[in-house]
């Protein structure tokens, strides 16, 4: 029992990375020293480096390109170099340490622990949502979240509550379906879906993408599992429809569905989709700017600002930088496809490329990216062991 609690706490810290005001940095960084020490002190961990040497090659190539761009904007280049270094540590080295030392490489066991961890996170979100005074205390005196939104959303003890958090929980619902997780499935899924609704609606897009992919690619000849998915979708729609009328947060969450219909039928131009496409989709005016970037930070630029990850990456290092980022993820997609099948690979890396429209996530160690890489290392290591 104590082992389970400790494992869930450690997984919570790694995946959700809460930033407490007393330390003012993500708690995942507490894994850095033991993980690096573990990597360099164990002889057999050379096999881990060999296992992922192509992935490391792509990341170091990306860092080298950032170094070449330093004369143009040294501060921004150093920031991207730091982001990629953190990415190596938190998305490759730390998850291997967690799997090797703490959780183990049993796929069902790891997925079960992640599932339980997400239930804890979703329960915290639900408590913060129904008890506003507790939420106010947590946000004002306990945690610091750079992406936290005041008012009608942001109910979590996690980094990126208005972006990464809901994507993380959506992925866990999808993985639970994919690996046929049955224990408290519907109750926990309701909690997870509520946590998505009250924090960031992009989680609904990920849910739709993942569930649709599972139905089309895996469940198309399995009526029982399709029925299970149908019940889950019905629960989602029922909750949103019947609870939104009495609560501003849920009304905002429900507006995702009306905005989606309006966007695809051209009923309303004032939607989040139109804002992304019309106001945030632009590119450098010169050919050299498109190819090699302009060394401009447009994430924090008041005059020319965009949330779209692809646009941010192009303005920094051009299509060449975006190409290097994509090479890593395409290679990993193909490798996971060969190791564990097309469906899981398509969903996990599809989530990364979809999410990069809403914010820069390629080679960024945000919560759901760390979760995806944890799954990736788990499945790749197990495939290598089984092939010996």
From TrEMBL:
Membrane-crossing segments per the record: 7-27, 47-68, 80-98, 110-131, 162-179, 185-217, 226-244, 310-331, 336-355, 361-381
Domain of life assignment: Bacteria
UniProt keyword annotations, A-Z: Membrane, Transmembrane, Transmembrane helix
Name this protein carries in UniProt: O-antigen ligase like membrane protein
Organism annotation: Candidatus Electronema aureum
């Amino acid at each position: 029992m104590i082992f389970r609690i400790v494992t869930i706490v450690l997984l919570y810290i790694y995946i959700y990375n809460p930033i407490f005001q007393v330390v003012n940095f993500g708690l995942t960084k507490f894994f850095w020293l033991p993980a690096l020490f573990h990597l360099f002190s164990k002889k057999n961990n050379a096999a881990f480096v060999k296992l992922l040497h192509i992935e490391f090659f792509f990341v170091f190539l990306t860092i080298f390109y950032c170094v070449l761009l330093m004369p143009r904007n040294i501060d921004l280049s150093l920031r991207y170099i730091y982001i990629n270094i953190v990415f190596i540590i938190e998305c490759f080295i730390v998850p291997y340490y967690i799997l090797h030392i703490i959780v183990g490489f049993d796929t069902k066991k790891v997925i079960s622990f992640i599932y339980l961890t997400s239930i804890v996170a979703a329960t915290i979100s639900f408590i913060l949502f129904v008890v506003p005074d507790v939420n106010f205390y947590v946000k004002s005196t306990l945690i610091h979240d750079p992406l936290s939104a005041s008012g009608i959303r942001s109910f979590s003890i996690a980094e990126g509550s208005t972006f990464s958090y809901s994507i993380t929980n959506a992925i866990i619902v999808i993985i639970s379906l994919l690996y046929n997780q049955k224990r408290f499935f519907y109750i926990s899924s309701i909690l997870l879906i509520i946590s998505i609704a009250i924090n960031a609606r992009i989680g609904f897009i990920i849910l739709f993408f993942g569930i649709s992919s599972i139905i089309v690619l895996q469940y198309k000849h399995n009526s029982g599992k399709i029925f299970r998915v149908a019940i889950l979708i019905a629960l989602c729609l029922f909750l949103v429809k019947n609870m939104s009328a009495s609560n501003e947060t849920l009304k905002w969450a429900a507006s995702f569905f009306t905005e989606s219909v309006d966007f695809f039928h051209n009923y309303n131009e004032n939607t989040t989709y139109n804002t992304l496409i019309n106001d945030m989709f632009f590119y450098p005016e010169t050919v050299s700017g498109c190819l090699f970037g302009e060394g401009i930070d447009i994430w924090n630029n008041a005059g020319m600002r965009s949330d779209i990850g692809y646009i941010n990456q192009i303005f920094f290092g051009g299509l060449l930088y975006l190409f290097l980022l994509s090479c890593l993820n395409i290679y990993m997609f193909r490798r996971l496809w060969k190791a564990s099948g097309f469906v899981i690979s398509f969903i996990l890396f599809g989530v990364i490329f979809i999410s990069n429209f809403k914010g820069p996530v390629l080679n960024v160690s945000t919560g759901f990216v760390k979760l995806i890489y944890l799954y990736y290392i788990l499945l790749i290591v197990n495939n290598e062991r089984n092939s010996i």
